[in-house]
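Sample 1 of the test manifest.
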Amino acid sequence: MWEYTDKVREHFINPKNVGEIPDASCVGEVGSLACGDALKLYLKVDEQDRIVDAKFQTFGCASAIASSSALTEMIKGKTVDEALDVSNQDIAEFLGGLPKEKMHCSVMGKEALEAAVANLRGQAVAPHQEGEVVCECFGVTDETIKRAIAENKLNTVEEITDYTKAGGGCGKCLDKLADILAEMKGQKLKPLEPVAQRPAGLTNLQRMKLISKIIDEEISPSLQKDGGNIELVDVDGKKVLVQLRGACSSCKSSQLTLKQFVEKRLRDAVEPDLTVEEVR
Amino acid sequence: MPVIYMDNNATTKVDPAVLEEMLPYFSEQYGNPSSMHTFGGQVGRKLSEARERVAQAFGCTPGEVIFNACGTEGDNTAIRSALGSQPEKRHIITTRVEHPAVLNVVKHLEKKWGYEATYLGVDEQGRLDLDELKDSIRHDTALISVMYANNETGVVYPIQEIAEIAKERGVLMHTDAVQVLGKVPFDLKTLPVDFLAVSGHKVHAPKGVGALFVRKGVQFRPFMMGGHQEHGRRAGTENTTGIIGLGKACEIAMGNIGHENSVVKGLRDKLEKGLVAAVPDVRINGTKDSRLPNTTNVSFQYVEGESILLMLDAFGVCASSGSACTSGSLEPSHVLRAMGVPFTFAHGSIRFSLSRFNTEAEVDLVLAELPKIIARLREISPFKRGEGEAPACTC
Ligand code: FES
C-alpha cells in the first residue's frame, strides 16, 4: 500500500468541493476513464477575475481525489492569474507530499486548472495539449514532458513517468523520453562558454546564491546521472565547501571530479579565484 | 478495529495447529537435520514426516517432493530445469495470464537467452483454448507451463487435459499450483504433469517455504547448488520449521477441501450475489463454471480500485485490486487486459479471496458497507452511466 500522509487521507476520505457548478464560468477536463484517472474542474469567476467558487469531479485513486480537493481549496478566493501560479509542487506540498509514483496526480490538477482557464479565455487548447503527442498510451505531449522536467527538476526517465505517466504503458516511447531529457539537459549546459557573462564584483550573499544555484541546477543533476550527488556545505570567502554523495563519495576519481568539473564550472560561472574543497 | 481478512490469495494466516506443530523446532529441537547426532536426527525424522504429509496431499511419493522457499522458486526451478535438460529445444509455451513468477522468467529467457515463447490467450471469461495450445506445440517445444488456477480471477484451467496433451506430444509440463492446494483436489498419480509448484503461505503455513514436485524419471537440474540437502536437488540448510508447518498445513488442507467447496464457497457466493444485487454496473471477472471456491473478482464501473480499497480499509476490510494504481505500474492487471475486460471496468476491479477463517458476519459487513462506498465514489466521479465511454487509450 502507498504511504499517504494524513493530509492526503483527510482530503481523500472527506474531499472538499465535490460536485458540479451548474452555472460555472468555465470547465476544465483532463484524463479519461481509459487512462485510469480523470478530473473535471468547475470554476465560478466574478467580474474582478476572482475565483469565487471551485468544484471538482474526479475518477482516480486516493491521491488523485486528494489532489483535486487540495487544488480547489488552494485556488478559491484567488484571482485567475494568482491561481495559475499554483504549481503541481504546491499541490503536493499542500498535502504534505505525495509518493513519487503519484506525482502525476498533482500534475493532473495543474493541467485541469489550465484547461479551465483556457476555456474561460476562449482558447481552444490548454498548454498541456500543445505540442506533439509523445506517449500514445497516455496522450502526453512533448510540451507537457518538457515542462514537467523543468518545473520539477527531473533527471531520469523514470521520474518523467512518475510525474506525467508517459512511458508507463507499453514502453514504446521510452527512447523518445530519454531524447527529450538529454536535449533539455544539453540546453542547460549550453551556457557553459560564457565566461564573459560572469558577473563582476559579487557581494557575499550574491556569490553564495549563485554558487548554490549552479550546483543545484547544473552540477548536481549531471553527477546524479552517474549515481552520485553533491551538496553545498558552506561558502567561506572564496572557499566553497562541498560534500560528495553516493557513487561520487566512494569513487577514486572524486578528487578529479571536484577539481576538473566542479571547480572549473564554478570558476567559469562565478569567480575565477574560487577553490572547491571537500569536507568529510 | 478487528481485521476482516479477505485477501487469502495474497497470503493466509498461519493455522494455530500449524504453529503449534512448528513451535518446538525453534528453540528446543533446533538440531540440523543433516547432523550425525541423535539430536539433529530427530529433526530429520520430523522432516521426513512433513515430506510424507505433502506427498500424501499430492498423491506422489516422498522422493518426488523437493522443499524450497516459495512458489516463485518452484516455478523458476522447474522452468530452468526443463530447459537445461533439453538444450536443443528452444521453444516454451505458457499463457498471458500467468503469475509474474512464470511470465517474467519466460520473458527473460526470450530476451536474454534467445528462446522463443508462445503466450496463449484467454477469452473474455478467462478461459484457454486447447486447440490453440495443440497448434502451438512444435518439435522443439521444451516445456508447457500453465498455472492450475489464476490468482486474480480464480479461474481454474483444465490441467488434466493440458497435461495429457503435453504427455501425448512428448513435451514436459509444469504447473504453478499455488492457488489450488486445499481448494481443488488433484492426484499426481493420475495427473500427468512433470513439475508442480506450491507455496506454504497460501495454505495457512508460514511464508518462506514451498514445495516442488518433480516426477520420478524426469531429468532434474538443480537451481541452488551447494550441500547435499534434498538429495542434492536443493542445496541450503532446510527451513525446518517452515517445512514442518507446510507438512501439517497440507494434512489439514486435505481434510478441509470439502469445507472449502461448501462453506467457504457458500460465503463467496453470498458475497458475490449480494454485490451484484446491490450495486448497478458491476461485472464478475472469470468464468462461473470453473473457478476457485474462495475467489471473486468484481469490477465496479466508473470508480477506481485503489480508492475502493482505501475506503474498505477504513472498516478493517482487506482485499486487493487489479487497478493500475495498486499494481505499481500505470496499467491495470495483465490478467484483466488479457481477458479484454474494458478499461472502464478494469480500473475498478476488486478481488476478494476468502478462507475458512472468514465468517458470515464479515461477509454481511462488506455487503452493508461496500455499496455505500461505491455510491460515494461514483458521486465524486465525473463519469456516470450512459456517458462512460470516454476516449480510449490506444495502449
Ligand atoms: S507510448 Fe508511452 S508508454 Fe506506450
